[in-house]
Backbone:
C-alpha cells in the first residue's frame, strides 16, 4: 500500500538519468516534490504517462513543485529514454539495491520486481501531502495530479 498522507517521507539518495545523485531531503528544502513511480522506461503506458507530464509540466511549475520520476531501470536506460523523449525533469534509478526506495514507499510489486504506478507529493516539511496509485495496467489521470497539488495549498 502506497505511503499515506501525513507520513514522514523516507529520505533517500538515487542517481538521475545523468548520473547525478539527488537526495530527497535536499530537494524538499527547495520546495515540494512530486515522486512519480513507474514500472519501466520504453513501455507503452509508462511512456504515455511521462510524455503527458512532460507536455503539462506547467501544472507543476505553476505550483512550484519539482517533478521527479522513479523506476527500477538502470541510469543508462533512463538516459536513453529521457533523451529520446525530451524529458527535462529528473528520472531516478532505483536499480540497486533493487527497488529499495519503492519498497520504502509501499509501491514495490515483489513478484514482478517493479514499482507500481504511484505518485507521492511531499511538502517542504518532508511530510507526504498526497499519494495515489492505479491498478496494474491502468494509467494515472492528469486530474489526479491537479487534485494532489491542491493539497499543498
Residues:
Amino acid at each position: 500500500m502506497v505511503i499515506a498522507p501525513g507520513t514522514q517521507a523516507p529520505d533517500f539518495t538515487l542517481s538521475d538519468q545523468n548520473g547525478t545523485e539527488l537526495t530527497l531531503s535536499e530537494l524538499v528544502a527547495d520546495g515540494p516534490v512530486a515522486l512519480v513511480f513507474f514500472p519501466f522506461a520504453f513501455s507503452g503506458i509508462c511512456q504515455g504517462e511521462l510524455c503527458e507530464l512532460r507536455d503539462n509540466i506547467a501544472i507543476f511549475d505553476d505550483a512550484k513543485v519539482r517533478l521527479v520520476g522513479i523506476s527500477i531501470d538502470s541510469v543508462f536506460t533512463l538516459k536513453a529514454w529521457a533523451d529520446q523523449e525530451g524529458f527535462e525533469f529528473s528520472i531516478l534509478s532505483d536499480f540497486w539495491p533493487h527497488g529499495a526506495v519503492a519498497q520504502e514507499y509501499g509501491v514495490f510489486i515483489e513478484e514482478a520486481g517493479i514499482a507500481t504506478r504511484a505518485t507521492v507529493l511531499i511538502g517542504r516539511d518532508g511530510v507526504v501531502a498526497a499519494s495515489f496509485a492505479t491498478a496494474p495496467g491502468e494509467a494515472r489521470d492528469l486530474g489526479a495530479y491537479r487534485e494532489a497539488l491542491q493539497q499543498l495549498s
In short: The chain has a mean pLDDT of 96. The chain has six helices and nine strands. The two ends are 25 Å apart (CA to CA). Residues 44-55 form the longest helix (12 residues).
